[in-house]
Specification:
The structure is a homodimer.
Chain A lengths: L9 E7 L5 H9 L17 E7 L3 E7 L7 H17 L2 E7 L5 H12 L4 E6 L8 H9 L4 E3 L8 H11 L2 H4 L14 E5 L13 H12 L3 E5 L4 H6 L7 E4 L4 H7 L6 E3 H8 L3 H8 L10 E6 L10 H14 L4 E6 L12 E4 L7 H13 L4 E3 H8 L3 H5 L3 H9 L9
Parallel strand pairs in A: 1-3, 1-4, 4-5, 5-6, 7-8, 7-9, 9-10, 11-12, 11-13, 13-14
Antiparallel strand pairs in A: 2-3
Helix pairs in contact in A: 5-13, 11-16, 12-14
Chain lengths: ~425, ~425
Amino acid sequence: MKSTPKGLRLHIGLFGRRNVGKSSLLNALTRQDVSIVSNVAGTTTDAVEKPMEMLPIGPVLFIDTAGIDDVGALGEMRVQKTQQVFDRADIGIIVTEVGVWGDFEEAIFAQLQERKTPFIVVFNKTDLGAPDATHIARLDQLDVPWVAAAAEKGEGVLDLREALIRTVPDEFINPPSILGDLVPSGEMAVLVVPIDMEAPKGRLILPQVQSIRDILDNDAYCMVVKERELRDALDRLKRPPALVVTDSQAFLKVGGDTPNDINMTSFSILFARFKGDLVEYVRGTMAIENLQPGDRVLIAESCAHHPIGEDIGRVKLPRWLQQYVGGKLEFVHVQGHDFPDDLSSFSLAINCGSCMWNRREVLSRIVKCQQAGVPTSNYGLTIAYSLGIFERALKPFPAAMDAYRELGGSGPIIG
Amino acid sequence: MKSTPKGLRLHIGLFGRRNVGKSSLLNALTRQDVSIVSNVAGTTTDAVEKPMEMLPIGPVLFIDTAGIDDVGALGEMRVQKTQQVFDRADIGIIVTEVGVWGDFEEAIFAQLQERKTPFIVVFNKTDLGAPDATHIARLDQLDVPWVAAAAEKGEGVLDLREALIRTVPDEFINPPSILGDLVPSGEMAVLVVPIDMEAPKGRLILPQVQSIRDILDNDAYCMVVKERELRDALDRLKRPPALVVTDSQAFLKVGGDTPNDINMTSFSILFARFKGDLVEYVRGTMAIENLQPGDRVLIAESCAHHPIGEDIGRVKLPRWLQQYVGGKLEFVHVQGHDFPDDLSSFSLAINCGSCMWNRREVLSRIVKCQQAGVPTSNYGLTIAYSLGIFERALKPFPAAMDAYRELGGSGPIIG
């Protein structure tokens, strides 16, 4: 975390009067004690820079400012520093209290609009009253996202997270690499690409092409092989590869043919991280343990392809999951950009590999599920869990392994 | 050639009255003496089946029939056999003589139309007179391709070849495999994929993806590597690969890093064969030897992408070709489906890799160039020739090597 240079972090400017709860909002967002929280106005004595990992966006730099309305010699300095924050913020959060919006907030609002800095308005302390309707209407008209929160109670924090995902510029929401950290420069990966009925004639599917390109972009190289030829291909190498990546459908065969000391995972798990939030998916996947026959499971597919014979989302995944659960589940399928508003009836929501969604869309879905208290997973993780190969497939990802261990995971390893 | 099973050959039924010149037409098309040519009516005593390689379409089976109008006991048998040919022909050629179209030809015409068999009408012996204008108008209206020929003099043969290219069903004009014969099942290829400015972000270009897929479809596997990591990648193998394929732009570096006993070629040369006619391209490329400073060279690009910095068709290829010729050439660029009607001013026409054209279009262009007497080549072959790596890059292709040797080729080999 500390290794990300400051310049590459998303800079989030936190603007607002003294004592509107900026620090407690930041704490709630990051679940860490970052700055001293106090109800005496002006406790924060300087612009506090806090580099942190805000999952799932990644490395951010929160700049928690003192109020511009501050007075006195110390206040002067604060105001100057706050002004500098405008120059540096990639996005802004205006924190205000219900009923106190005035010239001060208007000034920040105007400043951010003029600089074309995307921003969010947070009405904090809603436990003391609701935000003004005229005000809300104006924000909606200007397309400025707003959130009602009671940060100290943790209320509205998921809404703010969702608003952040919507607001963060593309270059920060998209991770730089699919597997650059797993296959170092000069190293080699083996990509296992089964050719089944779903593979379009003469083509490779997008996650495979993107993975090959990503490997080349990182000055590494790869072997591309079907599952049947994998053993021969590995035998042909003088040194083992840094990583074996397989299509989830060939997990067991590839797990069997790949020596245990070689890292192995799936395209779908790589894309859980690249297009979504691997740690959250791991937590969600482990809820499979609690699934009961008859439970409702949502399956969301990004492409609206016509389902064919052994379709993964319609046939294989449901079969493997039901075998694990030991009884029939009720599956509901949605396609494309459709996603149910009411998720409350589902015990699990499973996304596909998400090649046709951008990361912003996938992260929004994950937060929607969190808000509804529904665990989320994706195809690769659900299949890995159902087939008993979960722990091995997560081994290359330390943060995911930590989440797995925290939840008491100790699944079987298939060699 | 003989190894192609009869069932996989394009069956071309040759229909027509006795002595209209079917056999001499066949000879002219294939440049071989297939059947006895005589001006005594009815020399051909049976449906003559001739399996042959009709470049560039590939393995064909000509079925040269006796006339349906034949009389007598022997004639009866001939008529019966001719009828069977209708059941077997993938396409038909009705051969007639100027001025003799009648009930007989109408019967064949109707039969082929009813069966929805695509066919071409050839008016042969045009040295004896021109085909009837009303007749021609009717064929044009029905969208039936027709050709005026004087087969014994070789006239109209290229027109017939072009009409055949337009008429042949897709499955016969498209070769089954890009490199299936070069990388046998269980074997391995190394694909060298430079990542330059032209490579679209997060993608591979189409010939690379199609080649990977083709290798997997043939139960082989491949290594994908940038030119810089090629040496390391080859060192990592216990056994050398069956083939190294490189982007033409990295020819010299890859030629240097690939041991001489390993076959090496380029994507562009593979696609010269897959999307065009490698043998004809080899002949055309060797005309570079006769290019003089000031000559006009046509460069045809299938995709209308915006030319960028070191664009291959605009910058690199012209530079290398001019260095070889030793002086300035006049380049004319066309894009997409544009192709000049008048080719007479060009000394050479060079096609790109042709990923966005189908084979039918490329073959039509080659015949158009042949008709105008303009040599044709493609990017990969021109670059290989200009860089002195032509012979090495052709070594994997016996038919191309034969054409090269026939024209006295003995270029340098760069190791």
